[in-house]
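Supplementary Note 3. Input sequence used for the single-chain structure prediction.
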Amino acid sequence: MDIYIKDFYISIIFLSVCTLLSGQVTLDNSSMEGTPADATMPSGWFSAAEGTTPDILPGYWGVYNEPFDGETYIGIITRQDGSFESISQRLNDKLIKDACYNMSIHLAHSDNYTGYNQPIHLRVWLGSKKNERAQLIFKSPKITHLDWKNYDIEFNPNDDMYYIIIEAHISDNHIPHKGNILIDKISPILRCNRV
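The predicted structure, written as discrete structure tokens, is reproduced below.
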């Protein structure tokens, strides 16, 4: 019996060391799970812009798209006054300056979001301080598809980074409008696997 306990602990230590050495940075609640509600921040995330009131979906604002992963996802919007919604969190480990990383995010659009129905873009930023938009690492195409699609992101931080910001965005040089984007299943951030 003692040999099994010893083997168990050795396995746990080995897995822990492998995880630490892999360079994996995980996000808390990366699948945006929570109780569906309007104007509610998903657990593990905080607001990165004034007026941010993301919705945990489906079931509110006329949005009934099925989740890609788990039971829920979030929707964020842009408004006619030029304001927009964004969410952020502190990473569980820093992203190292000049290292290569990749991650992915699932995006969709709802054509029925109680008037916020225009397609928009998603931007992903890194920062070394809370709410800092120091480096833009991803700008999606305009998301018009109602089904979930996976978008891969590869980047090299230009400084040590500790925060990620995900925000709704209209096209540059366009008149502000009422749009939405749906977000689900963000992968861990991994070091690039290059030979």
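The radius of gyration is 18 Å. The chain has one domain: 2-191.
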